[in-house]
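Lab manual, section 2.4: Encoding a predicted structure.

Procedure: take the sequence of the chain (156 residues), apply the prediction step described in section 2.3, and record the output as structure tokens. A sample record is shown.
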Amino acid sequence: MSSVGKILTHDLSSLPDGKNYRIGIVCSEWNYEITSAMCKGVIETLQKTGVKIKNIIVCNVPGAFELPLAAQKIAKHAEIDGVICIGCVIRGETSHYDYICNSAAMGIMQVGLNLNKPIVFGVLTTENLQQAIDRAGGKYGNKGEEAAYSLLKMLA
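Recorded output:
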């Protein structure tokens, strides 16, 4: 069975109690209709596992390229347990898409490796707007929820 188009469902009871976690979220303002829906999914999932709203820090940045630096600044604080980076890059007519996607992915990975903390890549890299909509609460679920799940699994 192919996993293409499959909506992942996660058993939240398998996640740790989040009441003592402090989580950072870095959300790109580019394609904000998409990223804000994903960010909402992150926050709702974290709260369902016990993370207190006062322990969730949200930082907005202009675009996906800026996600790694903001994630690094937040993650450097000792009280922050992990960071979720939310973004959406939609392919255009130029190679700009490839540079932004690669830079964001490599930068986010490097922050996690350098700081030895989970830094989750919650960046949609889609061919068109409809694909992004489908993954930000549409027919394929909300990838923000999946990013929160990933972070909590890494913290466990």
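Check your result against the sample. Confidence is low (pLDDT under 50) at residues 1-7.
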